[in-house]
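TA notes. Do not distribute before section.
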Amino acid sequence: MLYPQQNDTRNLLDLSGIWDFQIDPDDAGESQGWFNGLAAARPMAVPSSWNDLYDDLRDYMGAAWYVTESYAPTSWRGQRIVLRIGSANYAAKVWVNGAPVGEHEGGHLPFEFDVTRHMRWDAPNVIAIRVENHLQPNRVPAGNAQGGLAMFMRNFPATTYDFFPYCGLHRAVYLYSTPPIHIEDITVSTEIDGATGLVTVDVVASTASNGSLHLRNGETQWRGLLQFTNGRAQAQLAVDN
């Protein structure tokens, strides 16, 4: 997964700001269609931890909903559109314009979904994210564990670690576009073989077409060929000392 960026082939829209927010202690939001909008919303900063922003949410660990609306630039038509969430602690479900687009568990890594087919071009797009942080012994780190470090279990919440399990959207949320044919991931590794430097490039792409690899050091250039099989290719360049 590549970090999103703005360049001559990719576009980036930062959705950070104030979103609508509503807690869901009875876990009724999905059955009641909260992904279309919140009836009793209050403002919530994204990114942030909801425990820090309202006194009555200081110790709340259940489910909550974030909803925002955003227009997609018309220049993005015909492109692949991706919704990227930098961090949702701990588990998240995501909807775009009322359609479920994916789920993720784990509050410490980014995740993203291709939302191209769900986008509207003549109206605002409704983006809804349900986040929940129920403390469970099988999560990382474990919460509501039994036994173990009793000194922590006497505190609230009942955890075996010495920090507070903050909840919410903890990193920025982005919409970004790529061409339909695009690089999905790239890994560069280097090593030394005697007096020669070896640069190995592994590429994951959305196509089986071949491509070229260019490495530049000042005015010196090296070139390699990327031959894709099932969307993957590897090339190695030798750079003499």
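Switch to the second chain here.
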Amino acid sequence: VEELLVRSIPVVFLQTRVNADNWSVELQLELGALGLNSQDLVVALPSWVEVALHCLSITVPAPPDYPSCLRHLLRRKVWTSTLLEVHTALASGAHSQLFVKPAVAAKAFNGMVLTGPADDMLEMLL
């Protein structure tokens, strides 16, 4: 926030409560009242960003949602696989570690580095 303010970029803190029963409707109303537009940067929980995108009639991109013009900056290969294939690749030694994140629901779980077939996190996901 400080860096944005130093650059004279206005910052607005949303008032909608995270635990409100109808937070989605409240958030839509608040964003509408603020005059949200496609030039605004929304930094929030993923579900809140989805509401903001919906208000702007912008479709949420399907994962992997890295823009092609930025893929060279990832410094890793990105492909779609299954957790079973990840388990097999780690067990066979084909990879010593892999970064995994959901391919369908972007925030079904946090992205994480798995280090082997006995990795507790992999077992939890399977």
